[in-house]
Amino acid sequence: MQSDRLIPRISPRIANIAVAGKPALSRYMWFDVLAFVLVAGFLIFISWGMSEMAAPIGKLEQVPIALDIANLPEYAMRTTLRMLAAVIASLLFTLGYATLAAKSRKAGQIMIPILDILQSVPVFGYISFTVTGFIALFPGSMMGVECAAIFAIFTAQAWNMTFSMYQSLLTIPADMEEASFVFKLSGWQKFWKMELPYAMPGLIWNTMMSMSGGWFFVVASEAITVGNQHYTLPGIGSYIALAIEQKDLGAIGWAIATMTIVILLYDQLLFRPLVAWSDKFRYEMTASQDTPKSWVRTLFIKSRLAKLLFRPIGWLSHMILRIRLFKPTAKTIQFSANEARLFDYLWYSLWALAGLVMLNHLVAFLETSVEYGDIRHVAFLGCVTLARVIILIIVASLIWVPIGVYIGLKPRLAEIIQPVAQFLAAFPANLLFPVAVVLISRYSLNPNIWLSPLMILGTQWYILFNVIAGASAFPNDLREVSCNFRVRGWLWWRKVMLPGIFPYFLTGAITASGGAWNASIVSEVVSWGDQSYEAVGLGAYIAKMTEAGDYPHIALGVGIMSLMVVLFNKCFWRPLYDVAAKKLRFD
Q: Residue 164: which of 587, 540, 529, 510 has the closest Cα?
């Protein structure tokens, strides 16, 4: 007995390794090797991309864009790096902007209308005003043009992510708020441990949509013109622009094939692991048996090398989350109803004064640059485009809401549909414009009707992705309750599913409508060769004024568009947001 105590006990796992020998070690070794290859490849990709971005700007003229198929891998990597940088910038913007707008009522009253204006301003307008500053910031370096392209893609990605985060923060369940109070979480801890995890499923799906939607503006962002200077960055967008200019359908086909491969790669390596990881943040009492899977996530979980490499990062993040920043104090300043009303009056008076100053400058501009008849005409064109946007949003909602719910409730199906939906969302809709020209010409169709669907081709996916996110985040216990009580048919839609996904649908519909306004500039006037068709609308007006270089009328058109977007959101979408925040929360 005494000799037995001297024999050390060996765990079954170690014993299996010791007995089996090479098979067990080789299995874990392969996990480590694959994880090392992925991490090392990503670091090499980032370092190579940064060195190319910092190259002298003269390299753009020395190595012009060519339609050689051998250049497509390099172009794909350059474009992907720009889109990744824009997504990271969009995420940082979202975390700060949406949180402040949701936490502060007065700030939200100003910041959300500003966000409405920002998403209604055409991406091309951002390029014309910002590229000069970026080039001046990095003189003689390609980094200035790269930053201008990244910023242009950022303006196509950030707004829907911000709206998604804002919607999630407004609809946090009351019992989670009570739990944070019971555990005495500081504002910093509450955000990282409760609010951000709750918003994570919707935020990831909107990030996915942003990554795909950015492809629509890649052509404009990689071919930049400033005055007499023209900059063409290496990338798939500039490759497609050159192929369209030379009418090379074969090159366009190779570019689309390359886009498909890139979408599949970042779906497998980035978004599918994130979707599988975010499944643990679903708000529910019982877990679903059908959960999303990811081979990359499984690989890093089983890799001992990955655990060793990321252990310092995990320890550091754990320590940061324990910091009690913005700690709620026991003594809070209490204002009476009259004092609170007085502060409100002062706040609104300040903004009214700022509005009067802006109105004074606006009136002076209108009196010297445009006529009042132009204002009435542009306002009428805005109403025509508004009618198109409303009809298209209704039609897209009737089509994609049932499909999105069906996909979101089946994680295994979502894994199959996810890359397909990303490809459809990433497909540059402007490549279909020549098809519309040919069909309208051949069948003598009315451009005012048949050019309208082009406005929603690239933005309808916001509705689909947000509905999938809402259905994926729908609590499993509520699904089980509805199943046990045999709630089916229209009653299930009206009482269970539609209220559950309504906040997510609102986010998708708002961003889709804003994107449709933006797309009207390029879809209400289409051409192919010497054939051109135009639909009556505000987008066509802005496009014609831009081509003519009439800056006062461009400003008038963009101003009317922004005003109509803000008023429509304020009068229609915001009341629905309030309903979702107050009555459709999982309490």
A: 510
